């Protein structure tokens, strides 16, 4: 199928984008188009305007400081996988990006687009939540920082207000003695995971966190003493997964914990 007719808008700056979003009625943002493109073709989305943001310089900027890396929302998975973006330590970001879908998707798909799409089985959503990342937003009224633990409010639903976009993702660097692991179960490489878990143990920053993704909604976050298997099982019971699904998720969590300790 082909998409319904729409008007393509291409702002040249972030301020112009913010103003455009306030003026447009039914519009959708497009960065790499790896999620929105198929939705348009299947007519699951029928916006009157599509706003292309992939070429905005403010959204592809990368900044590294002593304690964090800030990555523009339109930086591609491939740029991160290839090491063209500073890492937060231990090769974590390239390793995550290299496991996303296939090379053709990584060449176009963006880190910000993936987070905004809020697919429960998305790699960045699970892993960056475990890494205590936050999104930095932009709108005509300014911007704000939203912790990823508060960003996803349901399957394919995020906390952005109308006219607000993600400008960048800020990811704290890990300590030298931190331990990290990410495990996911897929039928074959490149496909969406049926179960996934990420674990960060960073004593220097007083972080002990496990995140379970692909649960049909926002990731399940387990902090501190709540990493025990029985706590995870109770949380999974509330997610609505069936017994097989819960078993797969508990296995993913156990293997991630084993790799991190």
UniProtKB/TrEMBL annotation:
> Annotated Gene Ontology MF terms?
FAD binding; oxidoreductase activity
Lineage: superkingdom = Bacteria
Q: What is this protein called?
A: Carbon monoxide dehydrogenase
Classification via PROSITE patterns = FAD_PCMH
Q: Which organism is it from?
A: Pseudorhodoplanes sinuspersici
Among SUPFAM superfamilies, the record links this protein to: FAD-binding/transporter-associated domain-like
Reply yes or no: does the keyword Flavoprotein apply.
Answer: yes
Checking Pfam families in the record gives: FAD_binding_5
Keywords, comma-separated and alphabetical: FAD, Flavoprotein, Oxidoreductase
Q: Does the keyword Phosphoprotein apply?
A: no
InterPro entries (alphabetical): Diverse_Substr_Oxidored, FAD-bd_PCMH, FAD-bd_PCMH-like_sf, FAD-bd_PCMH_sub1, FAD-bd_PCMH_sub2, Mopterin_DH_FAD-bd
């Amino acid at each position: 199928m082909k998409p319904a007719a729409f008007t393509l808008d291409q702002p040249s700056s972030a301020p112009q984008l913010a103003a455009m979003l306030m003026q447009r009625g039914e519009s959708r943002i497009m960065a790499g188009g790896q999620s929105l493109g198929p939705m348009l073709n299947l007519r699951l989305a029928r916006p009157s305007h599509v706003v292309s943001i992939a070429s905005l310089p403010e959204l592809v900027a990368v900044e590294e400081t002593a304690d964090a890396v800030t990555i523009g929302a339109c930086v591609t998975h491939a740029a991160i996988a290839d090491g063209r973006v500073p890492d937060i330590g231990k090769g974590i970001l390239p390793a995550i990006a290299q496991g996303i879908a296939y090379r053709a998707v990584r060449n176009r798909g963006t880190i910000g687009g993936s987070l905004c799409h809020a697919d429960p089985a998305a790699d960045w959503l699970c892993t960056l939540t475990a890494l205590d990342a936050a999104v930095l937003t932009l709108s005509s009224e300014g911007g704000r920082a939203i912790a990823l633990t508060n960003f996803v409010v349901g399957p394919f639903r995020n906390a952005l207000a109308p006219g607000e976009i993600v400008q960048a993702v800020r990811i704290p660097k890990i300590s030298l003695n931190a331990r990290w692991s990410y495990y996911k179960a897929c039928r074959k490489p490149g496909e969406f995971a049926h179960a996934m878990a990420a674990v960060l143990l960073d004593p220097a920053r007083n972080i002990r966190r496990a995140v379970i993704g692909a649960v049909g909604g926002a990731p399940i976050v387990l902090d501190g003493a709540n990493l025990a298997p029985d706590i995870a099982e109770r949380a999974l019971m509330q997610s609505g997964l069936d017994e097989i699904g819960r078993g797969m998720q508990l296995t993913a969590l156990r293997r991630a914990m084993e790799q991190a300790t």
